[in-house]
Amino acid sequence: MAAARDQERPARIHLKVDTGLGRNGVALDAWDQLLGEAMEYQDQGLLRVVGIFSHLSVADEPERPETDEQLAAFREVLAVAEDAGVDPEVRHLANTPATLSRPDTHFDLVRVGLGIYGLSPFEAQTSAELGLRPAMTLRTLVSQCKQVPDRQGVSYGLRYRTSGPSTLALIPLGYADGVPRVATGGPVRVAGRTYPVVGRIAMDQMVIDLGNIGPAVRTSSAPRRCCSGTGTTAGPRQTTGRWPPARTTTRS
Q1: CA-to-CA distance for 121 and 53, rounded, in angstroms?
Q2: How far is CA 90 from CA 10, 36, 82, 160, 205, in A?
C-alpha cells in the first residue's frame, strides 16, 4: 500500500484463493476476511481488485472428482465476492489441461503453461493428438565416444550394463543444467537417430549407448555430432514429449 500512496494511484491486484491445491492463495475460511480488507483499501483509493483466481490440482487426470470440487468452490468464492461489492474485470482458473478439456473452467481467461511449450498435459494423449507442436530444442555436442566391452557398467550404481561390445557417447549435460536426475531413458538424437540415456544422470553429464558402430564413425565424426534432447520437428524427431515419462520411470 505504501507504493500506491507514493504513486498516488491505486494498485491493480488479483486475489488468489486456494480451492484445493494446497499451495499459495488464501484459505477458503479466510476468504471473507481478505475480501473485507481488500475492500477497505479499495474504498481508500489504494487498490482496485481487478481479478480473482485459483489453480487446479488434477485437471490432467480428467476422471478425478477434485476438479469439479474446486470449480464449485471457486464459483462460491466468486458469489461471496460479488455480495461484498467486488466487481472484477477477470476471473481465471483454468491451466493447460483444463483449457484443453474443461470449457466450464474458462471464465474470462485461461493460463496456459505447459501447453505454451507444445507439450501434452495428459498421459493418454500426445501433443500431436491435441494439435500441439513442441517449441523447444536443446542442443549440445557429444564430448566423448569410446568403445567398451560386453557388460560394461555405466555411471553411478552401475544400473545399466551394455548387452555386447558397444560405443558409449558422453553428453555434457546433467542435473545442474536442469536435466532431471531420474530421467534415465530420456531420448537424445545424434546424427538422425534417437538413443535413450543409459545409467544414472550425473551433475554435468549423461551417457547414451550408440551400439556397436564402426570405428570410423566412433573416432572421427561422432564426438563432434550435434545432439538434441528436444525438438520442434514432427514425426520421429519429436522427442520432447518422451522426456516427461522418463522423469517418472526407473530404468535399469
Answers
A1: 21
A2: 17, 19, 13, 52, 45
C-alpha cell at 18: 486456494
**CB-CB contact of 100 with 94 (8 Å):** no
The crossing angle, in degrees rounded to 10, of helices 66-83 and 31-43 is: 40
Question: Grid coordinates representing 154?
Answer: 555405466
Q: How far apart are CA 40 and CA 86, in angstroms?
A: 11
CA-wise closest residue to 162 among 136, 206, 119, 198: 198
Give pLDDT tens digits for 62-120: 999 999 999 999 999 999 999 999 999 999 999 999 999 999 999 999 999 999 999 99
What domains lie within the chain, and their CATH numbers?
Answer: 2-112 (3.20.20.10), 139-229 (2.40.37.10)
pTM of the model: 0.76
